[in-house]
Design brief:
Number of strands: 6
Structural class: alpha+beta
Distance between the termini: 50 Å
Number of domains: 2
Strand content: 15-25%
Largest sheet: 4 strands, mixed
Strand order of the largest sheet: 3-1-2-4
Shape: elongated
Number of helices: 2
Length: 122
């Protein structure tokens, strides 16, 4: 009976990890959780099984392959308030570079740090 419970618990934990939504950065070789500091607005959403099929490895900072997320918020969604919208609480200067070679002067609250004009294409 105990063996059956252990096997059922293992299968359940594996299915939770495989069904978890993770994010792949355009240039990265790793996949991340929604709360990872390496995830920007330009990341692609996919499942853990799809990420493994693409040959991506889990991030060593956010550890998306672990079933028990200790860094998840109290809402249970694994994201902090305001993160799902991709908006900062304060404005920052755009990180984009103009055609003249100068830094853009627009302010943005976008999480990736780019204004609407310099938003990188996915």
């Amino acid at each position: 009976m105990i063996r059956a419970l252990l096997i059922a618990g293992f299968i359940l934990s594996v299915s939770i990890v495989i069904g978890q939504t993770v994010y792949k950065t355009p240039s990265g070789q790793k996949y991340h959780t929604a709360t990872c500091r390496y995830v920007k607005n330009v990341s692609t959403k996919l499942t853990v099984s799809d990420a493994r099929k693409l040959g991506l490895s889990p991030c060593s900072q956010c550890r998306p392959d672990q079933a028990g997320q200790s860094n998840a918020s109290s809402s249970g969604l694994g994201i902090r308030p305001g993160e799902a919208k991709g908006v900062r609480s304060t404005s920052i200067r755009c990180r984009g570079i103009t055609k003249a070679g100068a830094r853009c002067k627009r302010m943005t609250k976008n999480v990736n740090g780019y204004c609407f004009q310099h938003e990188p294409s996915p």
